[in-house]
Design goal:
Elements lengths: L5 E5 L5 H10 L3 E5 L3 H8 L4 E2 L3 H4 L4 E4 L4 H8 L5 H4 L5 E4 L5 H14 L2 E4 L2 E2 L10 E6 L2 H11 L3 E8 L3 H29 L4 H9 L6 H11 L9 H17 L5 H15 L10 H8 L10
Parallel strand pairs: 1-2, 1-4, 2-3, 4-5, 5-6, 8-9
Antiparallel strand pairs: 7-8
Helix pairs in contact: 4-6, 8-11, 8-12, 8-13, 9-10, 11-12
Length: 300
């Protein structure tokens, strides 16, 4: 597929807008829709043609949607005026949200009935880096459709992995997010234990960043934690939503995930304490509270 392909973008939220803007910067004609007028106004300043009709956005060569949850995907994609029904038969629908395999499969069945190509392409990474092109993605669905849109996807991702013809990409995204959620809880316990051992705050963060446990996520979070910055890049509310999807998928597949269940309870407690909009690394502060600790001395 050439760079002349027209793109429809539905969902111009914190993640969707910077990706759509990056495609516009790359020379694609992007027509965007969002139910929030403020997001449309902002999109217009980023080189995106805006429309108040999702059907018009869905009438392009390649249609992307970036939506918050199952309910939003079902409402946008299905029905007489939904994305699938509004698409041309030669168009491709690329769905990048984090949603359940079950709802994604509903959309897949509707796409087959309508004779359009449907790709599941969930994104790994968050809104704070979306404008840099350093996201990655997992793809499943018709392989020929994936290869056709790959040059477009490469404009906003550094890596694209094709996994299969069905819902494989949905499971991959949920599996990765389980690792992220559990790691945030483990970091909370790790840092609280280190503080009890009289290790300086920044010293322990330096140790952690250079240790065998230093995953890219751990290294990414060391900087904000050094400054005690819990501003959200991906909120506790959002992580709780994803953990619910993970637990649902695991139950349906008869996979025991006790750590996921315990991790979900930690996020429930954080949300219950009124910190749901904090970054998902907030289990660090929550564990300190459980251990009776105040704010650490961040100078050492």
């Amino acid at each position: 597929m050439s760079g002349k392909a027209t793109i429809g973008w539905i969902g111009l939220g914190k993640l969707g807008l910077p990706i759509a803007a990056r495609l516009a910067e790359a020379g694609y004609e992007v027509t965007g829709f969002d139910p929030a007028k403020a997001r449309l106004d902002l999109a217009a300043t980023k080189g995106i043609r805006i429309t108040e009709s999702p059907g018009e956005a869905a009438g392009r060569d390649v249609i992307f949607s970036c939506l918050p949850d199952d309910r939003a995907l079902r409402a946008a994609a299905l029905g007489e005026r939904g994305i699938v029904a509004s698409m041309r038969s030669d168009a491709t629908y690329v769905e990048i949200s984090t949603v359940s395999p079950d709802v994604s499969a509903e959309v897949g069945r509707a796409a087959i009935e309508a004779g359009v190509a449907y790709l599941r392409l969930p994104i790994s990474g968050n809104a704070s880096i979306a404008h840099t092109g350093n996201l990655s993605c997992f793809a499943s669905g018709p392989k020929d459709a994936f290869e056709a849109v790959r040059p477009i996807v490469a404009a906003f991702t550094r890596a694209q992995t094709y996994l299969g013809e069905d819902e494989e990409a949905r499971y991959a995204k949920l599996a990765i997010n389980l690792m992220l959620a559990a790691t945030s809880v483990m970091m909370g316990e790790t840092l609280a234990l280190a503080r009890k051992g009289n290790i300086g705050w920044r010293d322990m963060l330096d140790v952690l960043a250079e240790s065998a446990a230093a995953s890219p996520m751990v290294k990414y979070k060391v900087g904000p934690l050094a400054e005690r910055d819990f501003t959200s890049t991906f909120s506790c509310h959002q992580m709780a939503k994803d953990l619910d999807l993970i637990l649902g998928a695991a139950r349906a597949a008869n996979v025991p995930v006790p750590m996921a269940a315990l991790t979900r309870e930690t996020f429930a407690a954080i949300i219950g304490r009124g910190m749901g909009e904090d970054d998902f690394i907030a289990p660090v502060r929550h564990t300190e509270w459980l251990a009776g600790m105040g704010e650490p001395d961040t100078t050492s």
